[in-house]
């Protein structure tokens, strides 16, 4: 049994307002070539197909194209589930009809957890399929009001699985497993505490084909796999290699995983440098000027420079983000300005602004006034 395992496509994602559809098409063409060459028995797309529940039409057209290539042109079976970014109802639409053509869509979790069997020369492999599920949805599904965490939700849902011990089985899901490492662009999601599921829960399967974490990685001795996202979707992932996972399972359910790299059309890069006499001088020579790469620049100048972005873009036209290393004085490190602002209270921002402008801290009485104003603004919903 050969499985091509991929996830977290986030079609329609446009970081920094740059539409990535051409970049997503570029790597999906590579994915189709891999499927053509490797002839997997099944392609698993483990959630976050789209970046949002109402994806832009170009993203829907791109999914239509790639599924057509895989199922109609190459005759591959596909199992696709909804992730937390997707609308389960929309992903699962026409699921019953399309299953007859080898496209198995699972959008909304249901009980008992559905499964399908795919045979190879060694016999059947059972695929248990659970799209992204919130614990309170599991509470509703099972009627068990004691469920208060993802862990308890998975325990309750797994109790409905029908897996004879000797059977080869694969779990397909979208979840955060304890011990997994986030890549950066999942940051807006909650990836800790009550949201996590323990790895041991998946020990009963031959292989767990998961999505959610954007960094390719294995857990539980290779039994659990995250193939990672299609592309780097934030500068925190600059330089991270993306890939698809190819899984070969033998007659005893033992698996071996290979990865095939996906080459981005416009990689994300971080560079540092200084603006000297109206010209940007970068510290490292690795990234050539004039290219299409997406760039985040950290300027080391000790004083602000007017038109800094325009100056940098003369050399790196696709510079999307510019930050000042001096921001570290205020406790920030490698985060973008927007990140900093989001992570701070209005009062903190005001204190930093005052310090920046006046070179001294707010006095006690000024702080009292400021705090009162911030609280008032909050009550009125203005923050
Ligand atoms: Mn994702």
Structure description:
It is a single chain. With 383 residues, this protein is of the alpha/beta class. The protein folds into 2 domains: 2-262, 4-Layer Sandwich (Purple Acid Phosphatase, chain A, domain 2), CATH 3.60.21.10; 268-379, no CATH class. Helices cover 27% and strands 25% of the residues. The protein has 10 helices and 18 strands. The protein has helices spanning 21-38, 57-73, 88-91, 95-99, 135-142, 150-158, 308-315, 337-343, 346-358, 364-379; strands at residues 2-6, 42-46, 77-81, 103-106, 115-120, 123-130, 168-174, 176-177, 196-197, 207-211, 217-219, 224-226, 242-249, 255-262, 268-276, 279-282, 294-299, 319-324. The protein has a 6-stranded mixed beta sheet with strand order 4-3-2-1-13-14. The chain has a 6-stranded mixed beta sheet with strand order 5-6-7-10-12-11, with no helix packed on it. The longest helix is centred in the N-terminal third of the chain and has 18 residues, at 21-38. It starts with a strand and ends with a helix. Mean pLDDT is 89; it is low at 329-334. The site of manganese (II) ion (MN) has 8 residues, from loops. Residues 8, 10, 48, 83, 85, 186, 212, 214 line the site of manganese (II) ion (MN).
Keywords:
383 residues; alpha/beta; six-stranded mixed beta sheet; binds manganese (II) ion
């Amino acid at each position: 049994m050969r499985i091509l395992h991929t996830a977290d496509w986030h079609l329609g994602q446009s970081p920094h307002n740059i539409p990535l559809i051409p970049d997503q098409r570029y790597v999906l063409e590579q994915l189709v070539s891999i499927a053509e060459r490797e002839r997997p028995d099944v392609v698993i797309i483990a959630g976050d197909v789209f970046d949002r529940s109402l994806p832009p039409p170009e993203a829907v057209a791109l999914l239509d194209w790639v599924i057509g290539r895989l199922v109609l042109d190459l005759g591959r079976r596909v199992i696709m589930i909804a992730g937390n970014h997707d609308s389960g109802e929309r992903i699962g639409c026409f699921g019953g009809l399309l299953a007859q053509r080898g496209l198995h869509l699972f959008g909304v979790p249901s009980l008992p957890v559905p499964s399908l069997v795919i045979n190879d020369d060694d016999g059947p492999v059972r695929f248990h399929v659970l799209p992204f599920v919130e614990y309170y949805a599991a509470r509703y599904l099972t009627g068990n009001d004691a469920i208060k965490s993802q862990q308890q939700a998975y325990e309750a849902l797994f109790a409905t699985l029908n897996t004879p011990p000797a059977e080869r089985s694969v779990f397909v899901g979208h979840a955060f497993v304890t011990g997994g490492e986030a890549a950066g662009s999942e940051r807006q999601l909650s990836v800790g505490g009550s949201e996590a599921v323990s790895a041991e829960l998946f020990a009963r399967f031959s292989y767990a084909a998961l999505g959610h974490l954007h960094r390719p990685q294995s857990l539980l001795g290779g039994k659990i796999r995250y193939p990672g996202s299609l592309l780097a979707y934030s500068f925190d992932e600059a330089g991270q290699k993306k890939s698809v996972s190819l899984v070969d399972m033998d007659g005893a359910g033992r698996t071996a995983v290979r990865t095939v790299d996906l080459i981005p059309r416009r990689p994300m890069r971080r560079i540092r440098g200084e603006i000297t006499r109206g010209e940007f001088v970068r510290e490292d020579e690795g990234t050539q000027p004039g290219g299409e790469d997406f760039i985040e620049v950290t300027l080391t100048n000790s004083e602000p420079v007017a038109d800094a972005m325009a100056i940098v873009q003369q050399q790196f036209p696709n510079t999307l983000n510019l930050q000042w290393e001096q921001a570290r004085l205020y406790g920030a490190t490698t985060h973008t300005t927007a990140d900093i602002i989001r992570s701070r209270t209005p009062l903190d921002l005001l204190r930093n602004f005052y310090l920046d402008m006046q070179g001294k801290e707010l006095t006690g009485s000024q702080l009292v006034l400021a705090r009162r104003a911030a609280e008032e603004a909050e009550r009125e919903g203005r923050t």
